[in-house]
Design goal:
The chain has 414 residues and is α+β, with helices and mostly antiparallel strands. Helix content is 32%, strand content 27%. The strands form 4 sheets. Strands 1, 2, 8, 9, 10, 11, 19 and 20 form an 8-stranded mixed beta sheet that branches. Strands 6-5-14-15-16-13-17 form a 7-stranded mixed beta sheet. Helix 8 packs antiparallel against helix 9. The longest helix has 33 residues.
């Protein structure tokens, strides 16, 4: 507790070895791994549940491999999901193939499309067997507790009143709008993105089948995911144009959607107003420094990713695995030094930079072209990948496995 900011009489106190702020993929996976290692850890999730307007639903082979290494894969794959192996698209009237996961030499050569709330609930339920792991819902971190130059804990609002959690180590996993990195004063390097995304769902009839993933035509772009009883849709717009889209009206937007994807016609009435359309403001950025004494940021709190490739969830999981591999044994003895904390950045910064660079290349050579309008030729790279199947295996590896995939090496307490 700060000497200059004593807790009020109604403020509860709590002490743990590690406080993880944020119950997304990075936070819940890290909490599970540290609990598995016998570390006294609490995960804070500011909402009452894991249901969010936009959560990435793509669970890639790299994450499936982690679940396998933890002995969780059988139960995980019993959850409702759809398997995707081939990523096909239409550029104007030309069919293209973006990636083919069946060409990968991995144990799980597919993407599992699963609601993220099911993934997070599964980790929470699986972690209940670890007595050292606590997950607090409705617990919103509002500030950091400091002792001199070091971070010593987190101030939290809960329905039962404020709580001060003293922790040897605070780990920020609270996303691209991280309160942890804001309060820590960590500098963010903005890389930029030319688009935003409108996220909505359209009802799907049992007889509707289509394997198309991306559709690009005449200045419009949309991605659709078959989610069983509905289509999840991501309609791409130029950066900052949401108000202009709203000004045109919902019927104009839905007309554009149906021209791109006629298969949505039967269920398009599910989109009744702009309340059913959620804006995802796309950002690509990263911290120049991930640590302070007593503090580490990972996942989107350290590096926000574009939705291109659906890699965000999986990079967050990889960060969590690397963090547990590097720090779990050290945490058993107390707070690692800042240099030991920075080992996580040194391990993970290279795959983050490479992935973000690939996303920027895709933005500059595909997304920007798609949003120009008019009849645009199919980009040379797409034509080459479509014509050469072995390249489809390469793009599949870059998207679905990634650069420097992590494997579970953190200890498991007896």
């Amino acid at each position: 507790m700060d000497a200059g900011n004593p807790a009020g009489s109604n403020t509860r106190q709590m002490k743990v070895r590690c406080c993880v702020v944020g119950g997304g993929p990075a936070g819940m996976m890290l909490g599970y791994l540290l609990g598995r290692a016998g570390i006294d850890v609490v995960v804070l999730e500011k909402h009452a549940d894991f249901f969010r307007d936009f959560r990435g639903d793509t669970v890639h082979p790299s994450t499936l491999q982690v679940m396998d290494e933890l002995g969780l894969i059988d139960g995980f794959l019993k959850l409702p999901h759809q398997d995707i192996q081939k990523l096909d698209g239409m550029f104007g009237r030309t069919s293209v193939r973006i990636a083919d996961l069946s060409r990968l030499s991995v144990k799980y050569p597919f993407i599992a499309m699963m609601p993220q709330w099911d993934f997070l609930n599964f980790l929470r339920e699986s972690g209940r067997r670890f007595p050292s792991l606590k997950v607090l819902m409705n617990a919103e971190a509002t500030d950091l507790i400091r002792r001199g130059d070091a971070v010593a804990g987190v101030r939290v609002n809960t329905p039962d009143g404020p709580v001060e959690i003293e922790a040897d180590l605070v780990i920020g996993c609270d996303g691209r709008h991280s309160i942890v990195r804001e309060r820590a004063g960590l500098k963010v390097e903005e890389i930029g993105a030319p688009m935003d995304v409108l996220w909505f769902r359209v009802g799907r009839r049992p007889d509707e089948t289509e394997n198309l993933f991306a559709r690009i035509d005449n200045g419009k772009m949309m991605v659709t995911f078959d989610r069983g009883d509905y289509w999840q849709c991501a309609y791409v717009i130029a950066k900052g144009q949401y108000e202009a889209v709203k000004a045109r009206g919902l019927p104009a937007l839905l007309d554009d959607v149906l021209r791109l994807a006629p298969i949505l016609k039967a269920g398009i009435a599910d989109v009744k107003s702009f309340d059913d359309v959620k804006l995802l403001t796309v950002a690509i950025n990263r911290l120049t420094r991930w640590t302070l004494p007593g503090l580490l940021c990972i996942g989107d709190a350290a590096h926000a990713m574009s939705p291109i490739g659906g890699v965000g969830v999986n990079l967050a999981v990889q960060d969590a695995v690397a963090t547990a591999n590097i720090l779990a044994a050290k945490l058993a003895q107390g707070c690692p030094s800042e240099d030991e904390l920075d080992a996580v950045r040194r391990r993970r910064e290279f795959p983050v930079r490479v992935t973000q660079r690939m996303q920027v290349i895709a933005q500059d050579n595909l997304i920007s072209t798609a949003l120009k309008g008019g009849d645009q030729p199919v980009p040379f790279a797409l034509r080459l990948i479509t014509a050469m199947p072995w390249l489809q295996g390469l793009t599949a590896r870059l998207v679905a496995v990634g650069v420097r995939p992590e494997h579970v090496h953190s200890p498991a307490a007896s």
